[in-house]
Amino acid sequence: TPRGAISYISDAFGGSTSDRQIIERSDLLKMFELGDSIMADRGIMVQDLFASQDVYVNTPTMLKGRSQLDPEEIVRDRRVASKRIHIERVIGLAKKFKILKRELCQSKVPLASRILFVCFAITNFRNSIVDKFA
Predict the structure, then answer these.
(1) Exposed / middle / buried, residue 4 (Cβ in 10 Å: 0-12, 13-18, 19+)
(2) Where are the membrane-spanning stretches (predicted)?
(3) Residue 30 within a domain
(4) Whole-angstrom Cα distance, residue 26 to residue 91?
(5) pLDDT in the model for residue 60
(6) Cα(97)–Cα(120) distance, integer angstroms
(7) Which residue range is the domain that position 62 belongs to?
(8) Three-class secondary structure of residue 46 per DSSP
């Protein structure tokens, strides 16, 4: 959310699952309204998945053979990066839970989605990492 709270936690997926596959297999696509905007990392090509809902996917601009970005692209990328840093910080807070720092033992794999949900949900109880004026 704009204030740094986690509003969606998908089920857990194996390490070889691509970002695109996670989006396709989760219920994330059903959560957006016409005209919404989301952020994604550079190189995550999922715009087509959201196009039918008119959801804009904000990703850093790729050079595509150019040596540098246009001034407008630089300003836009800085704006996106200033928001994206909050996402990375929240994920970093959740990853501090000891259980998420290492590979799950085989007996806990069936609980992976629940473990992930609890760790990220508890992270929401911390003070907001985003200044209310950001």
Answers:
(1) buried
(2) none
(3) yes
(4) 19
(5) 80
(6) 9
(7) 19-124
(8) coil
